[in-house]
User: Fold these one by one.
Assistant:
Number 1:
Amino acid sequence: MIRNLARRTDAFTSNVFLVTGDRRVLVDVGNDFDVVGAAREHVDDIDAVVLTHTHYDHVENLPAVVEAFDADVWGYDTTQDGVDHALEDGDTVQMGDDEYTALHTPGHKNDHLCLFSAAASVLFAGDLVFANGSFGRTDLEEGDRDQLVESIDRVLDTVPEDLAAMHTGHGPSVEDRPYHDIELAWQAARF
């Protein structure tokens, strides 16, 4: 099961997804809200944290999560504060009951990852793309519009057209034709 723990939060934060099953994982940890308390409403413990990238709104709660759950933290770049284990392009990580493949998708930030499970037909898109064809900012440090377009193109080549669900770093998840939203983001980002 996948739950967005930040869904009803008023603070400016990223989405925080709790993936339950054999391995309880948080995808991103957000900022400015009690993510530990929100997680404990559903589980007693967290096995790991997987970061889509290290912008503050996705990682500011990391010290509290690590202290509360003693969870390992996985991300693309172990030189970033709090990242214990590297997830390189093509590596797999178990989240819940499924294996997810890490896709290095720079353009919004150099350490950006998307996570895709073919078995679950689920994509965690981070801040690469959003619902309704929106895409991640490229005007921040490490942002690069051409790289972002290439990363979106790679995701389109990786996920199936009948992808069941896309969970994004901000805004609503997409469970009705998410591939179409990725296509729209690719088209919009090119101009």
Note: The radius of gyration is 15 Å.
Number 2:
Amino acid sequence: MVKLATAAYPMGVLESWADYEAKISGWVAEAAGQGAELLLFPEYGAMELATLDGPEVAGDLERSLHAVSDRVAAADALHARLAAAHDVYICAASAPIFAGGARPVNRARLFAPSGEMAHQDKQIMTRFERAPWGVAAGDPLCLIETDLGRIGILICYDSEFPLLGRALSEADILLVPSCTEALAGYWRVRIGAMARALESQCVVAMASTVGACPWSEAVDTNTGAGGVFGPPDLGFPPTGVLAEGALNVPGWTYAEVPEGAVETVRRAGVVANRAHWVEQPQGAGAVTKRDLRTHSP
């Protein structure tokens, strides 16, 4: 049995680094206290770090990107300590990071109980990330071997693209940290997450930012909820929904996944979407056109 915790996370104004450390430590302690072994924070949840440099910096789009990037190393050290102290895996809230390029990448970091870290950068940017943010695509997709199984990460918009999900089809668990402004955005990501669970016959966990952040141009409005999804098939709920949080209510959403559930559904499920993927016609040449118009041109 693997127990997952996905966050509906409210960002806020931080008065000091101690405030941030206490906040993250409290969230991790709460989930670990409920027996969670894998904790997922949302996309861009790290933007609250910009408030440590004051309201002018937090409210300026470009300056806030740099302010957050400058504090990621300290945030990573904190998450590594907490993962080791509580013997859990933690996917920290993603952050804009200037990783040697002229523009930042959007990077999620997964910490093991050993304190070791692996990272995943977002692949495809939304309109707002392209302009005015200027966020760049980063390192390619990776599959992370853990004691809980193989884990992949698709950051928000990435979860809406089937070929990215297919590239991670060996994953037992996909993590989808998200940050969406409107209800439609939340549902786009949730539908993408559920589709990836169906296609790859795996577990997909989604985390969201929630609440208003008037101090930020970047993440001023947030709508979402935590959720954990699987294929609607053998060993999983008929809806595919293992757990779903209440919309816009801060806190953790928990789900337990029976040991071997993914392996079993892939081997003996009613359908075999993952194995049958290769049977799809490849390319436009596989499409035959028919014309049923009354008056053809």
Note: The first strand starts at residue 2 and ends at 10.
Number 3:
Amino acid sequence: MAGSISRHSRLVGWAKVLLPLAALCLLSTMFLLARAPGGTSDIPFAEIEEIAREQRIAAPRFSGVAANGADIEVSARTARPEGALFTIDAPRARMLLPGGGEVTVTSGSGTISADGRSARLTDLAHVDSTLGYQMETAGMEADLDTGRLSSLGPLEVRAPYGALTAGALTLDASDAGGESLVFSGGVRLLYRPEP
């Protein structure tokens, strides 16, 4: 009987040493496998460095109501502050006119004033109107206080009644709900009557 107690005591003594060592080996193996590199890093360090160097806002949206009652919204892919302006990439301006019409202007780049009172869309601006006009020009300038749009140069227009070219365009919405498109500067019209 004394021999079996002695054997049991030695077994328990060895177990007290071996079991914690086995547990330690299992834990260290688990942590080593968890930290093994999984190939290329998913973090684009070059992009992080570029973002850290340059301040920018992703997907900005500026909106408000003009004095004539038009709802105006300017959105872009990115905006970067530069003095009293924000430089915007891939801007889109949308104006809901008081009379129910809508004008949308898209372009490659532009600027918006820090106070949000004016925007300039450059790099071939495309203008679409629910009045049936589709226009292309070198750029558009928007006075966000008054709700007035003006072209920055000559434009080509596809209208419901034909096609025209002009040196400039001004779009105004009145408080009464009407809209006016004023073409000026050598307007040439190619009239296509309805059949």
Note: The chain has a mean pLDDT of 83.
